[in-house]
Amino acid sequence: KQPKPNPAERRIAKREVLVQQPKGTLQLHIENRCLDIDRIRDISPFGVCLKLKAVVDKGAQVRLKYSYHGTQIEVLGTAVWGKAAKSPYPNSLDTLGWWVGIFMHPSSMDANFALYRTIVEGRNDGLLDESGNAFYW
């Protein structure tokens, strides 16, 4: 039997589940906080699922920054859902972090594609300027 689709799930494109985590540094900036990202579960040019050690409120406006060997990409987004990451061990009351779904804003689409290609495919296809920074059209 096929599972019913979740009506709250509004993905525009298929997400790529990552086998390996990116080699660079990925951080989530919310207001005056900078949160390190424990893990990326999946990504598309329109959204990403991240695991953090801190709770992120639904609706929070965020900046996702990735840097590696002179490449710097920044995308704008909104936290659209969050959920506690439970321990895989039975009877454990401890959570291991917080899963958060980020919708990446269309206003930074060039940077969104640059981030996606850099993380998934290890390339940027010229979506970055000569300094290695993502640019916006």
Characteristics:
7 strands; disordered N terminus; mainly beta; six-stranded antiparallel beta barrel; 137 residues
Question: Describe it for me?
Answer:
There is one protein chain. With 137 residues, this protein is mainly β. It has one helix and seven strands. The protein has one helix spanning 109-121; strands at residues 16-17, 25-30, 33-44, 47-52, 61-68, 71-86, 95-104. A six-stranded antiparallel β-barrel has the order 2-3-4-7-6-5. It is globular and about 45 Å long. The relative contact order is 0.19.
Task: Describe the secondary structure blueprint for this structure.
Blueprint: E1 16-17, E2 25-30, E3 33-44, E4 47-52, E5 61-68, E6 71-86, E7 95-104, H1 109-121
Antiparallel strand pairs: 1-3, 2-3, 2-5, 3-4, 4-7, 5-6, 6-7
In short:
The chain has one helix and seven strands, in the order βββββββα. By secondary structure, it is mainly β. A six-stranded antiparallel β-barrel has the order 2-3-4-7-6-5.
Strand order of the largest sheet: 2-3-4-7-6-5
The biggest sheet amounts to: 6 strands, antiparallel, barrel
Total number of helical segments? 1
Q: Report the β-strand fraction as a percent range.
A: 35-45%
Q: Indicate the percent of residues in helices.
A: under 10%
What is the molecular shape? globular
